[in-house]
Input
Amino acid sequence: MYIYCLPELLPWDETDSKLLKFVSLQRLKRIQSYYLESDRKLSLYAALLVRQCLSTISGLSALNLVFGCDKNHKPTCLTKTSLHFNLSHTQGFILCGISTHHPVGIDVERITSAPFSIMRRFFHPMEIQYVEDAPFSEQDNRFYEIWTKKEAYTKQQGTGLVPNLSELNILSSDIHPLLHTWKYNNYVCSICNNSNSPNKITYIQESEIRKYFLHMSL
Output
């Protein structure tokens, strides 16, 4: 199980414009549809991160990878279907999980003042209790731990977030062992995978991605 984190992104500049040629036409249209440069940046580097990491693991050229979606709109690598990956990003952070054998789900959220009022709608009673039993200073962290785990699990299952989330208890004995959560500064990351293999977390800098792709055009 491979986990790649891109934790810091600089403002959009000329170099980013040069990197647009390395993404698919569909991704390019999505990038260009965003009004904010920060959103364009996240979309661009999420696509580049996946290409670079899948290429590193598979040995295939990053430029030859073709992507699509399954019936539940979950992204897949059509070039090598045995590789499973999942992406998540939030303000200033991109997370990518890759498995060579099992479907994977992943999520990252920036820790802010948690919207506790939505717990009754989306959290199982045991999850609500888990959050409320924490010291006040830890309740934001626990809220986002539960939220990212629920999203990672549903993404791994291929269903995405569903209306009856309050019936899903990710603290249950049959689900919780599939999940792993960690913090990086003010971000909470969660991953769900059926494999018992240890997670290998690699942190990548923006400069590494730029160098990787721009070298291809030399």
About this structure: The chain has two domains: 1-102+196-218, 107-194. Strands lie at 2-6, 67-69, 75-77, 84-90, 93-99, 104-110, 179-184, 187-193, 200-203. DSSP finds seven helices and nine strands in the chain.
